[in-house]
Specification:
Blueprint (H helix, E strand, L loop, with lengths): L1 E6 L3 H11 L5 E6 L2 H10 L4 E4 L8 H10 L6 E5 L4 H9 L4 E4 L4 H26 L3 E7 L6 H6 L7 E6 L6 H11 L3 E5 L6 H14 L4 E4 L11 H9 L5 E5 L4 H6 L2 H18 L12 E4 H7 L10 H11 L4 E5 L18 H22 L5 H27 L6 H30 L5
Parallel strand pairs: 1-2, 1-3, 3-4, 4-5, 6-7, 6-9, 7-8, 10-12
Antiparallel strand pairs: 9-11, 10-11
Helix pairs in contact: 11-14, 13-14, 15-16
Length: 446
């Protein structure tokens, strides 16, 4: 049930609104003709949502909202009025109103819309209460982000318990701005590196602080204000509801993001995504290199932040470790906010070779750790013999061409053997991938 406090100084409108809302059996409505009566009721009962008129004899609806905020009552309030224009709507929303609804000549439409707003406000309130029951922190790696870091910090929702801003030896005004923001928000903890260590090291520093202060969930966002706070619940819900231990963003479903991708960038991103899937074992993740993530404390404790790769590509390293230890990961689709920054200035193509080497190293480590030490699965041998056959087919093909060109030897037998080895090697590797996919599907929560 959703309890609603309705404040309206016109008796006819009050009764009509109450009657319509109470048609919904999930809503219980207490009606008040004055703000004083409403405040008396609020002293004795907790409501899920307040619906208030704007123009009233004693104080207007926005003043009521400010009074409730001053008293520490955070019940969502909807301004429902027939008077007031755009300036009133802006003031109401800036003051913290959940919604603003203008009364119209179509009662059926306006009351249906009001009912929908009540449900949305109540759901949001209950969701935030659940979040407040968990110690949730945000980790923000920042390097020379003086233009957008203040906006990013000011946009963090109130249900976030702690904000770790990791300044990776910035040379601009970033440290000053962080210090200024910290003076106005005691949730902010400024961590500064003496020298630039890389984005992975910055995330690891934030993770270590999260473990020290026993945070339940750690969310990573960048200092560039490219993800709206409205997307945070989508990252938190899978972990709060115990459906996953790790949530990673997916930009590829966003048309705005795809428009920013050049052909070269698209190719490099696709190639690295494929390598990451093979190395990590998370075949269902569509944007595994995404930097916007949320992780549970139990997963964070297991992967050991001190062992995370310090530079660009740290996200691949985290995924490999999470899969090795059997943690479930899910994708969260979101729209990239284009605030003039576009996509990161460092293209994926710059990192293809070094990240490929890291992914190969991580893949071999996962095979050894997950399928030989912690458990056993024959897919390791499928991968081994598959790679062996492919290497053998490559060198045999080179040798066959050499003998054909230099020694004038027949090509048919050696070429046939090369193709057979290539086919067998490909089949071994495809079967190994199939077995690895099955292992991912078998990961269970708790």
């Amino acid at each position: 049930m959703i309890s609603v406090l309705l404040v309206e100084d016109e008796p006819e409108v009050l009764e009509l609104t109450r009657l319509f809302l109470e048609r919904d059996t999930e809503l219980t409505v207490d009606a008040c003709l004055s703000v004083k009566e409403a405040l008396r009721k609020l002293n004795h009962k907790i409501y899920n949502v307040i619906v208030s008129d704007y123009i009233m004899p004693e104080i207007n609806g926005i003043q009521l909202l400010k009074t409730l905020k001053f008293q520490g009552i955070d019940t969502p309030l909807i301004i429902f009025t027939g008077q007031g224009g755009e300036d009133v709507a802006i003031e109401a929303l800036n003051s913290g109103a959940a919604f603003y609804l203008q009364k119209s000549d179509n009662p059926r439409f306006q009351f249906a819309k009001l009912r929908k707003m009540i449900y949305e406000a109540a759901l949001k309130q209950r969701t935030e209460e659940i979040y407040r029951e968990n110690n949730i922190c945000v980790v923000i790696p920042a390097f020379n982000e003086e233009k957008r870091i203040e906006t990013t910090l000011n946009s963090i929702p109130e249900y976030i318990f702690r904000i770790y801003i990791v300044d990776d030896a910035s040379t601009d005004r970033t440290p000053e701005i962080i210090k200024k923001c910290a003076e106005n928000d005691d949730r902010i903890k400024h961590i500064r590196h003496d020298k630039n260590k890389g984005v992975g090291a910055s995330v690891a520093s934030g993770y270590r602080e999260a473990l020290k202060e026993s945070m339940d969930i750690a969310v990573v966002i960048t200092g560039g204000n490219q993800i709206a706070p409205a997307h945070l619940p989508a990252f938190l819900d899978p972990i709060v509801k115990r459906k996953a231990d790790y949530a990673v963003g997916n930009r590829l479903q966003s048309p705005e993001y795809r428009k920013l991708l050049t052909e070269r960038r698209f190719f490099s991103t696709t190639f690295l995504n494929l390598l990451t899937k093979i190395a990590s074992g998370y075949w269902q993740l569509m944007d595994p290199q995404n930097g916007y993530t949320a992780i549970s404390r139990r997963a964070l404790e297991r992967i050991d932040p001190g062992k995370i790769y310090p530079r660009y590509g740290y996200s691949d390293d985290i995924l490999v470790r999470l899969n090795t230890y059997g943690f479930k990961a899910v994708n969260v689709s979101y729209s990239v906010r284009n605030n003039g920054g576009g996509i990161s200035g460092i293209g994926d193509h710059v990192h293809i070779f070094p990240r490929s080497l890291i992914l190969i190293r991580d893949f071999l480590w996962r095979m050894k750790e997950k399928y030989l030490i912690l458990n056993f699965h024959p897919l390791v041998f499928f991968y081994f013999f598959g790679i062996l056959c492919l290497i053998a087919s490559f060198f045999l093909g080179i040798y066959a061409l050499y003998e054909k060109i230099v020694g004038m030897e027949p090509l048919l037998i050696r070429a046939t053997l090369t193709l057979i080895l290539l086919f067998i090697g490909s089949m071994f590797i495809l079967f190994a991938m199939l077995f690895d996919m099955e292992q991912e599907r078998n990961i269970e929560m708790f």
